[in-house]
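queue> holo job accepted (cytidine-5'-monophosphate)
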Amino acid sequence: MELCVALDLPTFEANINLARSLRHKNIWLKVGLRSYIRDGEKIVSEIKEINPNFKVFLDLKIYDIPNTMADAAESMANLGVDMFNVHASSGKVAMREVMSRVSGLKKPPLVLAVTALTSFDEENFELVYGDSIDKKVNQFAKDAYESGLGGVVCSVLESKMIKSNIDENFITLTPGIRLNSDSDDQKRVATVEFAKEQNSDIIVVGRPIYNSKEPLKVVEEIIKRMQ
Ligand code: C5P
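queue> job finished
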């Protein structure tokens, strides 16, 4: 299991200081909407400058018509990121077009599909998608797999189910990880130990790290719990 730290801080400097403090760790760093909209591609290049071995996950969760998604996918790949994501609900045609555009590139990034956001509970999920989380997550994961993507973003609660229904090697990246019972706005949360039990491949942790006074210590604690 690998750790991905979310760089969701309010300024470029704060994100970069966090990345610097973690420069000796073998981890992923996640650049999300807030940071990318504000700072653009310089955040990606700056992270790689701090440590070229940092793996960058560009978490923009794109959703649009197939051609626009494929264009955006190519632009993201050209930034030199190691992974990006799309919404599975954009459909198989769009996901296939994304894959056919990036797979021919020299260093194609890993592409994941977002299934159900971990901030959804059953009731609110059903209001939007008209079905249960489990059913829809399975269908979205199958669509993503059949479209040639490398894996999905899901909650820890769905990781094992997806792997057993689809393929053990299909990557599950799971946000909503907590060290204790605080859950912020996340609903389907789990501990590091539970994520490991559920065969999550990459865990994403944001606020428990960057809201702490000693982020490096929290990262070290998480890595210890991952063993
Ligand atoms: O602060 P926290 O640990 O909740 O951060 C989780 C990160 O993972 C956030 O950057 C959020 O945007 C992202 N994420 C998520 N649920 C998804 C996909 C991404 O929480 N399904």
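queue> Residues 6, 8, 32, 59, 114, 117-118, 153, 175-176, 184, 186, 204-207 surround cytidine-5'-monophosphate (CB under 6 Å).
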